[in-house]
Amino acid sequence: MRGWVSLVTSSFLLARARPRLLSTTRPLSTMNQCRQISPISSNTIISNGTLSKKHLFLEQRSMSGRSGEDSGDVVPPEDCPSYPPITPQQRLAIEERQRQAFTFFRQTLQIYGVEELIFCFNGGKDCTVLLDLLMRFLRQENISSGDIPMLYIKSGDSFTEIDDFVERCVLNYHVDLVEYEGSLKDALTHMSADMPRIRAVFVGSRNTDPYCQHLAPMQPTDNDWPPMMRLNPLLEWSYHDVWHYIHLNSVPYCSLYDRGYTSIGNRSNTIPNPHLRRPDSQCDCDSSTNPACSCDPGGFRPAWELEDPALERAGRLPRK
Asked: Would you indicate the residue range of the signal peptide (predicted)?
């Protein structure tokens, strides 16, 4: 993704966004997918002094008394005794993954200024690892976590648990939120106009994701996309690498993963993974005609118990 938008000025980041007028949008695929084609609905205009930014919803949120609250939408891994012990070999492998990610971040900062970067976040497990890695790296380098904003693309069909988890991450990691509605492509198009200094975006894609098999760690966007550089530090990570990192580092994650979800899109296209159903559970969540799931959360094993990573997306319903 070759050029994008550079980071907005600090005075603009401190602006409080006005309430948005939300219009109906089609279901949105997750940002872990490399291509999206949903239409976008524009947001209200956010202004700060003489600045006028169309389509953009941006606000800075800091830690408050809420940071110490328990949330049903965030699960601290240390409270999950069912996670199997991690072997010394697995620990060393994850430490090497982290070292490689930090090297990638360091190389990125040799090419781009910190003000030219942004990272995509969708509340999923891969982006959660990306967020934690990036924030750890920034602390190590004495760079403010607010210097690289978070891009979240919200859909009217999103899980409440995901939206709430994103909110918690904004508070806990001290990051600035940039929020759009619509598809990733349309969001980047509008961002190119709203934030013209951003030139590169961190994305939590892995090479097992759809359309991502042949991505390079630094991959320019396709010709019909806004020109910018896509930064993919997690390409070589496996499904179980992600969960090992989360549990080794006690990284909070969305509670949906405790209920059998392994790849999360939107409510209309995502169900708990049928391969994690407990033998004694009564649930029709694998019915393609009724994607809404109201099953007992205990009817499915947690996401990290999926043995075959090739079945990660078994809970995704086909597009109609």
From this structure: 1-19
pTM for the full predicted model? 0.75
Instruction: With CA atoms as reference, report the closest residue to 46 among 198, 228, 193, 148.
Output: 193
First to last CA, the chain: 30
Residue pair 170/200 in contact (Cβ under 8 Å)? The answer is no
Cα–Cα nearest to 191, from 129, 116, 285, 252? 116
| Cα atoms in the Cβ-side hemisphere of radius 13 Å centred on 133 | 31
Domain ranges of the chain: 10-231
What distance in Å separates the CA atoms of residue 316 and residue 320, rounded to the nearest whole number? 12
What the block records as the tokens of 264 is: 């999360």
Tokens of 240: 């179980």
CATH number for the domain running over 10-231: 3.40.50
pLDDT of residue 148: 96
Quote the tokens at residue 124: 């999923």
Read off the tokens for 156. 């009217």
List the one residue out of 22, 43, 30, 2 whose CA is nearest residue 183: 30
User: Cα 21 to the chain's mean position, in Å?
Assistant: 23
pLDDT in tens, 86-98: 999 999 999 999 9
Asked if 221 contacts 2 with a C-beta cutoff of 8 angstroms, the reply is: yes
Location of structure tokens 């924030």: 135
Identify the H or E element spanning 219: strand 218-220
Q: Which residues have CB under 8 Å from 151's CB, separation 6+?
A: 118, 119, 120, 121, 178, 179, 180, 187, 191, 201
Would you say 211 and 129 are in contact if contact means Cβ atoms under 8 Å apart?
A: no
The separation between CA 319 and the C-alpha centre of its own chain, rounded to angstroms, equals 21
**Residue-wise pLDDT tens digits, 183-226:** 888 899 999 899 999 999 999 999 999 889 999 999 999 988 99
Burial of 178 (0-12, 13-18, 19+ CB in 10 A): buried
